């Protein structure tokens, strides 16, 4: 397969994905934002706890 064929195949795949995808509505967008925010908070809390434990152990 040469460069031209692989490029055309890639473009076809991109067009298919764009055709199938849709813009999220307001409710879906808010839900994704809430889940993402919650994940960031949880990771921050875990990092904070690890930092506190490391300081208590004198590392």
UniProtKB/TrEMBL annotation:
It comes from the Archaea. InterPro entries: Prot_translocase_SecE_dom_sf, Translocase_Sec61-g, Translocase_SecE/Sec61-g. NCBIfam families: PRK09400.1-4, secE_euk_arch. It is a single-pass membrane protein. It comes from Methanobacterium alkalithermotolerans. The chain crosses the membrane at residues 32-57. The gene is secE. Component of the Sec protein translocase complex. Heterotrimer consisting of SecY (alpha), SecG (beta) and SecE (gamma) subunits. The heterotrimers can form oligomers, although 1 heterotrimer is thought to be able to translocate proteins. Interacts with the ribosome. May interact with SecDF, and other proteins may be involved. Keywords: Cell membrane, Membrane, Protein transport, Translocation, Transmembrane, Transmembrane helix, Transport. This is Protein translocase subunit SecE.
């Amino acid at each position: 397969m040469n460069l031209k064929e692989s490029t055309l195949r890639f473009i076809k795949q991109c067009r298919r994905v764009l055709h199938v995808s849709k813009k999220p509505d307001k409710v879906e967008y808010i839900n994704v934002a809430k889940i993402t925010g919650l994940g960031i908070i949880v990771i921050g809390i875990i990092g904070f706890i690890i930092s506190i434990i490391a300081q208590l152990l004198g590392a």
